[in-house]
Amino acid sequence: MRVNSKYRIKPYPISAVVAGMELGRLVLTHDDKVMLSEGTILSESMIAGLKFWDISTVFIKECSPAMGIDLSIPETVLQKKFYADYDHTVNLLKNSFAKLRFFTEVPLATLCELVNNSIDPLINATGVINHMHMVRRQDDYTFHHSVNVAVICGVLGKWLGYAGQELQDLVLAGLLHDVGKTQIPLEILNKPGKLTPEEMEIMHLHTIRGYQLLRNTPNAPQGVIYGVLQHHERFDGSGYPLTVSGDKIHKFARIIAIADIYDAMTSDRVYHRKISPFAVVEVIVDEMFNKLDPAIGTVFLNNVRDYFVGNIVELSDGRQAEVIYLGQFMASRPVVVTEDQEYIDLERNKSLSIVNVIRA
Ligand SMILES: [Fe+2]
């Protein structure tokens, strides 16, 4: 229904509303009196009034790209805050890991503080999965990837029902999953292009090096130690370093494996351009019944797909389109509507695919 209209209506938390936005639905007071009508252009004083009356969410009218209207909606306050907090967290981690490379001691207390004070707010931010995709990454892949995996572990952990200390430990395991890379020579770690088989073998040692670092760290939680050691093990025994399989792989490591694949594939790397989250979902569906834990994979896919509706994407034929519907669970390819109002079910039309997310 929304695709026939000129606009789409999206809920905004009041903290993200700025002057100049147009109301897509009327706002009622708590005793059901009309406070502001649909179509009102909000002013600063109206926003202050909404806050005064404790209105937590309003519906805002956004231009629909399907009508060929300007896509350049400015970043919301929430997005700006997320990006600033994210950059700050990456810088804090960079400092900790730089020390680690020389002193080979994991600053556990500092990293626990980082999880509680900096990463936890990112996990709980509205729209976190979309923000993660649009975040501007600087050069240092390892630090960005570590923060991203920690955040995705936290989000996925919450979907799986984790809470409290166990969730904090899982996030810490995600943050530290590649800590062993601080012990890998920089010329291998940062080598552009493919690694030789010998270099690849050294690279694979980051799992064992991470395990050794954490074993020597007083009070390191068990789940963190095994999450780090086993995050490249695969459910069918095809991973490394010990080729263990099934539930011999710690559940933290099985969660990290999914977060790691999702983030690595949706990132720009020295050896590949980032792939759209839609294509990554297809990969996870493919691997879910042999290499990944199917129960965890199912929870991930069921929840992550909700974030994709409303994304503006680029199709393989160059057209822009809006994702309007995601079908059955296994149907990883959505229905989109293009700028010229063509509805395409990508599950049926396999000659087209999503190559990029323009706005999440
Ligand atoms: Fe790794």
What does this structure look like?
The chain folds into three domains: 2-63, Alpha-Beta Complex (Molybdopterin biosynthesis moea protein, domain 2); 77-305, Hypothetical protein af1432 (Orthogonal Bundle), CATH 1.10.3210.10; 309-359. Strands 8-7-6-5-9 form a five-stranded antiparallel beta sheet. Strands 1-4 form a two-stranded antiparallel sheet. The chain has 360 residues and is of the alpha+beta class. The two termini are 21 Å apart. The relative contact order is 0.09. The protein contains 13 helices and nine strands. It binds fe (ii) ion. Fe (ii) ion binds next to loops.
Short recap of the structure:
By secondary structure, this protein is an alpha+beta fold. It contains 13 helices and nine strands. It has helices spanning 44-52, 77-103, 108-123, 128-134, 141-159, 164-176, 186-189, 197-204, 206-215, 222-230, 251-265, 277-287, 294-304; strands at 7-13, 27-28, 34-36, 57-63, 312-315, 320-325, 335-338, 343-345, 354-359.
